[in-house]
Structures are given as structure tokens and as C-alpha cells.
Amino acid sequence: MRTALALFVAVSMSTVGSAAWAQNAPAAAPAKCENPNALGVTRVVEIDTTGGPGFGFEHFKAYDFLRDKEVVLTFDDGPWPGHTPAVLKALADQCTKALFFAIGKHAGWHPEILKRVAAEGHTVGTHTWSHKDLSRMTQDEAVAEYEKGLAAVSIALGNKPVQPFFRFPALRHPPEMMKYLADRNVGIFSTDLDSFDFKTRKPEHVIANVMKKLEKNGKGIILMHDFQPATAAATPELLKRLKDGGYKVVQITGKTPIEPKKEFVDMVMKEIGGGLEEARPMSSVIKTIKEN
């Protein structure tokens, strides 16, 4: 396992603020941490996604790259007003980083939030165009759902390449799409610890679910949703609990970003409308001036 792991995962021992961290960061180097007791980032792990390796023991067992007491923070289904900014603030307060799997439509609706995610040094992957279950679609439909999601995220980030990471909706992995993504050199993320925040809907339950599973497993890739209000509310206390429990955060970054295909960029631009890459925040364009 360790030999195979070396083919795909290059581990950087850098700490927040080091030269190696700045080199590997998916966006501009983060601001200096003002919290001396912050959770921070212990390691930055660069993944060579050639051939589409999978991560997360719920579905993929080959690459056990986390050490004891290490976690990867992942958030699905954003960007979303209110909730994603609240998660970002909590992460910034603890000077730590996460991996966000953005939905294409949400990126198209709220590009300013996704730009902020990247600008603050987090890693941005994709989570389809509209969160449809790819196992219930034809292969052509599933490919379009993936590619449109990638195109929308790229456009929202200013027509930039995207980190080569993808998470399937509902963690359902149809074999044909696994092969397609392997050919596209996209790394697949499942999870080690599911917070079930979409079911519990209470901040205290989100925290309890994560901590209980961590105490049992000792480490893991944590699945949460920045779309969920309970998660936005839970994140500050959860990060504190991780720090108090001696857990350490690992940030994931990709060796080679992925470019969207032009036909799907054109499709997304036609569907959402021109000017997406320069879109102003919705609040500066539309506001309620009267409501009965």
C-alpha cells in the first residue's frame, strides 16, 4: 500500500506560512495567522491524480495517506450565501484550510463567494452541475453533468483551471463514470467520516457525529456541507473541539489542474448567461425595497 501510495501522493511537510506552503497553495498565499492558538494546517499533501485515484475508506482502500490524529476537512454543495461565508470565517479564525466540492449551478449563481473560497487559500473541486445522481443517468448525461459542473466552476473562478478533484453526489460511483474520470485524470473523493449534517440539521449533532467517529477511527476525511445552516453554525465549535482533541488538519492540493472542455463552457455560458466571470455579488444587483 505504501509503495503504491508513493506513485500518487507527494507529501509536503510545510507549515502555514512557509515557502513550500506558498508554492503548493491553490490560490494566493494566505494572510499571516493572528491566532497563536489556531488549529492551523500541519501538512499540505499534493496529489498526482493521473489515472483517477480514489480516496476515502468508505469506498477506496488503496491510499491510506493520513497519519494518526490527522483530518481533511471537506465541504460539499456550495457556494451558498450566508452559510459558506460563515464556514470561511470559522476556518479563517482558526487559520486552517479545507477542500470545497462546488456545485456548478451554485457557482454560477454565486461566483463572488467561490472566488472568495479560492482567494482565501482553500482547494476547490467539483460536485457536478446540479447534484443529480449519476448512477441513474445514461453515460452521455452523466458526462455532461460532470463537465458542465467543471465548466461552471472554472468560469466562476475567472476562467481558470480547477483542482482535479471530484466527489459524486450521494457517493454513488457508476463504473462507466469512474473510467471516464480516470481518463480525465480526476481524483475521486469519498469519505472516511460522514457528519450526516444533511440529516441531523442541528449544530450540536453535527459536532457530536464527527467527534464520536473520530474518537473511534483516530483520523479521517470528514464529509460536511457548507450548504447546510447547521454546519455553518457548528463549524467554529467543531474546529475548537478538533484543536482541543489534538487533531491536525491536512490540506489537499492537486499536482495538475484540469481544464474544462470548450463545448461545455459554451453550454454553461448560454444557459446561465454571459458575464458570469465578472458577475457582481447578487446583493449589489438585487435588493428588496418593499415587502408585505
How does the SSE layout of this entry go?
Layout: H1 2-8, E1 9-12, H2 19-24, E2 43-47, E3 54-55, E4 70-76, H3 83-93, E5 99-102, H4 104-109, H5 111-119, E6 123-126, H6 139-156, E7 165-166, H7 175-183, E8 187-189, E9 193-194, H8 197-200, H9 203-217, E10 220-225, H10 229-244, E11 248-254, H11 262-272, H12 282-285
Parallel strand pairs: 2-11, 3-8, 4-5, 4-10, 4-11, 5-6, 7-8, 9-10
Antiparallel strand pairs: 1-2
Helix pairs in contact: 3-10, 6-11, 9-10
Signal peptide: 1-22
InterPro entries: Glyco_hydro/deAcase_b/a-brl, NODB_dom, Polysacc_deacetylase_ArnD
GO molecular function: hydrolase activity, acting on carbon-nitrogen (but not peptide) bonds; metal ion binding
Which CATH architecture of the domain at 71-272 is right?
Answer: Alpha-Beta Barrel
Number of strands: 11
Shape: globular
pLDDT averaged residue by residue: 88
Keywords: Hydrolase, Metal-binding, Signal
Organism: Undibacter mobilis
Pfam families: Polysacc_deac_1 (PF01522)
GO cellular component, one term: membrane
Q: Gist?
A:
It holds the Pfam family Polysacc_deac_1. With 292 residues, the chain is of the alpha/beta class.
How would you describe this protein?
- Is involved in generating a small heat-stable compound (Nod), an acylated oligomer of N-acetylglucosamine, that stimulates mitosis in various plant protoplasts.
- The chain is an alpha/beta fold.
- Helices cover 40% and strands 16% of the residues.
- It has a domain at 71-272: Glycoside hydrolase/deacetylase (TIM Barrel).
- Strands 1, 2, 4, 5, 6, 9, 10 and 11 form an 8-stranded mixed sheet that branches. Strands 3-8-7 form a 3-stranded parallel sheet, covered by helices on one side.
- Helix 7 (175-183) links the parallel strand 7 and strand 8 (187-189).
- The longest helix is centred in the middle third of the chain and has 18 residues, at 139-156.
- It is globular, with a radius of gyration of 18 Å.
